[in-house]
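## Example record

The block below lists the input lines for one assembly entry, exactly as stored, with component labels intact.
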Amino acid sequence: MADLPGAELSNTMPILGKRADSMAEAYGLKIKSDIPLPQLPHAHSDLVADVTVTRCGSPTNMFGSETTNAEGRYVWGDSLALTVGWNSIGELRISNGKRIDVYPLEEVGDATLSPVIMGVGMGVIMAQRGYYVLHASAVSLESGTVVFLGFKGDGKSTMAASLVSRGHQLVTDDVLALPPGGLETVSPAPGPRVMKLWPENLSAALMDKMSYSERVHPEYDKRIVWSNGESVSPRPISVIYVLEEADGISVSKVEGQAAVIELLRHAYAPRFFRPFAESRRHLQAAAKLAEQVPIFRLSRPSNLSQLPEISGMIEAHSASFSDH
Amino acid sequence: MTNSTQITLSNEQLAASVGAEVVLLGLNTGTYYGLEAVGAHIWNLLQRTQLFGDIVDDVLSEFDAEREVIIRDVSQFIKTLEAEGLVHLAESQIEDVSR
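Predicted C-alpha cells for the full assembly:
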C-alpha cells in the first residue's frame, strides 16, 4: 500500500451501514442486508426494506463450465429470476427487483462480496424494476449530471475520479439507473458513491476527497474508493459522453439512430443476460433518452497526464447544456 | 423482385423511431440496425404497404432519383432486410395490372 501516492490505508471504514443486517440506502431504495455494505449511507432500521440481501449456502453452478465465459462468469434463469455466478466468487440469485440471495464460495470475504452485490446485484435489481440501466459513471457538475459511457477498460472510473479530484461530486460508478420515462428531464437514481480504481489512477488530489480500502478481490489489484461527503440528490442529466481512445482530444455529436445504438450497446443488464434487451420497452426507453439528452463521442488518448486538460474541457463543454 | 412481391415484417424484430430515423433489433441475431433517411422511410412504409411496386412509387415521389436507380436500391435494401431476418418476401397471388 505504501506505493500509492499521498494516501494511507484507511483503517476507518465509514461507520454508517457497516453492520450486518442493517438497513442501507442506494438508488432511492432501502436495502436490508446480511452482508455488510459499508460504502452505503445508513437508513433507519424501522423502515420497510425495498430490497433484501440474504447470505445463503454454497453455490450450485448447475450448468457447469459449458456456459461459463472467459471471465469465469455464468448465467442462467430468466429476467425476473436470474442467477449470475463467478467461478472465483460464488453466485447471486436476483429476483423480482426485490431479492438478492448470495451463495458465496467459502473462502470469499465480505469485502469481495459487497462490490459485487452493489454492482451486478443492484444493476440487475434496477433493470427488473423497470429502470433503464447503463454501464456508466456519472459526476455532478454545475451544468447537471454528466455521464460517461464506456466498456471495461475505457476509463469511465478514471474520468469520473479526475472530475471528483477537481471538487465535483460522484453520482455513481458502474451502474447508472434511470427511472422509467415520461419526464421532461432525466435524473438518475442516486448510486453508491464508491468507485473501483487501479492504484495508478489514485491521485493525491483525489485522495483529499475520498478514502480507499483493500482490493476489490484478493487476486485483483483494483481498489475500492469511496466518497466521504454527504449524499445529495443527483441533478438531471445534462450530457452523455461515449468514451473512446484516440491520438488527439475531440468531441463530436452523436445523433439519431447512432445515439440510440450507443445507449443500447452500453445498457447494463443485457451484458449478463441478453433477454433484458429484447423488449419493446427497452428499445423505446433508449430512443426516448436519445431525444432528451445530448450525446457526444469523447475521443482522447489514454495518457493520464492529459486528464486535467480533458476534465477542464468537459467542464467547459458541458456548461453549454446546463439544466438551468 | 417484381412489383407484386409482398414484403411483410418479421415477428422476430423490434423497432423504435428516433426523429426521422429508426433503430431495429433482430431478435434472432441480437443485432441492432440503424436506418437513416431513405431506409427509415421505407421501413415506416412497410408498416402499411406490402407491395414492392407501391414502395417504389412512394420513394420515387419522395426522393429525387431515376426510377431504375430507385428500383435497384430499394430492391437491394429489402433483400438485405430479408437476409437479416427482419422481413419476409413472397410473390403476391394477385396479378398487378396497374403498371
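Helices of chain A lie at 110-128, 156-165, 204-207, 256-265, 280-292, 307-319. Residues 1-19 of chain A have pLDDT under 50 and may be disordered.
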